[in-house]
Write a structure and sequence with these properties.
By secondary structure, the chain is an all-alpha fold. It has one domain. Helices cover 86% and strands 0% of the residues. The longest helix has 71 residues. The N and C termini lie far apart (105 Å). 6% of the residues are buried.
Length: 181
């Protein structure tokens, strides 16, 4: 029914297996629309929960590292907060999508319907902004960490050159002292 409706509208050309699947697994008319929002919303909630679990696990591991500099720990704490907020908002948007279509009678309350879905879109925009902020913060942290590593590298290279020069000077003194005796 859904495949045929889209195909008749000229927007979609269904593969033969899709039409066969629709004939073997009938879905009552109207139920397709009723299932789409809860399924998509549920998927978003599931993604949010898995992401939150992953962020908590990563944050615990980072806190347990004893060799982290304060600079890194502050960055990781901020990243954890940003990513938990994004994950929570993704879950909230998932819930709003899943229940919004069923709870808001759009035919009778068009203004409420519009306000509700504008709120959903604003949450989505906020998620995008937080994602961009996380990318910028991660890039800045990475650049600062690379700069610290390069500074350490230069110090170590200078120390290596000094050690080689000192060793060569000691060898030269040692050889010249042996030749006289």
């Amino acid at each position: 029914m859904l495949v045929a409706g889209l195909a008749n509208a000229g927007r979609y050309h269904a593969p033969p297996w899709a039409e066969e699947l629709e004939r073997t697994v009938p879905v009552p008319p109207g139920l397709q629309d009723q299932l789409l929002a809860p399924l998509f919303g549920g998927l978003l909630v599931l993604v949010a929960l898995v992401a939150m679990w992953s962020h908590v696990k990563a944050w615990r591991e980072q806190r347990e590292q004893t060799d982290l500099a304060d600079f890194d720990l502050i960055h990781y704490r901020g990243r954890y907060r940003r990513r938990m907020q994004v994950s929570g908002l993704i879950g909230l948007v998932g819930v709003m999508i899943a229940v919004g279509d069923a709870l808001v009678p759009w035919e009778q309350a068009k203004t409420l319907f519009a306000v509700y879905w504008i709120a959903v879109m604003l949450f989505a925009v906020w998620i995008l902004i937080l994602g961009v902020a996380d990318m910028i913060a991660t890039r800045a942290h990475t650049q600062a960490a690379l700069a610290r590593l390069r500074t350490q590298q230069r110090v170590l290279e200078r120390q290596l050159v000094q050690a080689k020069n000192q060793r060569d000077a000691e060898k030269g003194d040692h050889h010249s002292g042996n030749g006289q005796g």
